[in-house]
Amino acid sequence: MSTLPPSDIPGFWSCTEEKVFLDFPYLQLVERQCRKTSDPEDQEPHRFYVIRSKDWCNIIPITADGKVVLVRQFRAGTLSASYEFPGGVVESTDADAQATALREMAEETGFEPLPNARCKLLGTAHPNPALQDNQVHSLIVGPVKRTRPQNLDPTEDIEVIEVPIEKLPGLLRDGKFTHALMLTTLYHFLTQETSIAKDLIDGLKAFQK
Q: Does the pTM of the predicted model rise above 0.85?
């Protein structure tokens, strides 16, 4: 159990100790001891278990002819194929979240930004603050074009799908697009640009120009 510097947590908690139980390449399982500073009668430490992980990125790629580039890949958690935006783990060798997102897009799909492309950070969120300490960064880029073959890891088997922008709301309505973090990325886009399906289409089309 390692000792942490005393710190006041918003919500009147103080965490001073933690222990790593499991250590994997992309995550750790940590036990944290935290006390309520708001209740003088409750000074016993409470145990919390946290998954410490690297940050993640998702990116919405838009082609010059107005299509969204999606990936469909196997997910071991649900034992099913998932429709998603390209994305992945932020590595220490990446300059920033944008570099991660563009690298993952190129590796998973073979698409890269055209010389006149724009890339924008839409927003950042915590996937599950109760259990995880990392963030997911959502970006959008366009126009993009397929310029190279996929460069997949041994555990990846990714189908690349180009979906006309006007069909994306239908994927949502039909339950094809269920990954919560991908829906978060869409939410970030909607809150910045639009609020209904028609405006979603118009907003995404702006990135093909």
A: no
